[in-house]
Amino acid sequence: MGWAIALHGGAGDIPRSMPAERRQTREVALRHCLDIGVNALKTRRHALDVVELVVRELENHPNFNAGRGSVLTTKGTVEMEACIMDGNTKRCGAVSGLTTVVNPISLARLVMEKTPHIYLAFDGAEDFAREQGVETVDPSHFITPENVERLKQAKEANRVQLDYTQPIPKDAKSETPLADGDSQIGTVGCVAVDNEGNLASATSTGGFVNKMVGRIGDTPIIGAGTYANNLCAISATGKGEAIIRATVARDVAALMEFKGLSLKEAAAHVVEECVPRGTVGLVAVSSTGEITMPLNHTTRHVSACATEEGYSNWIWNSEEN
Ligand code: GLY
Question: Going by CA atoms, what residue is nearest to atom 5 of ligand 1?
Answer without folding.
Answer: 207
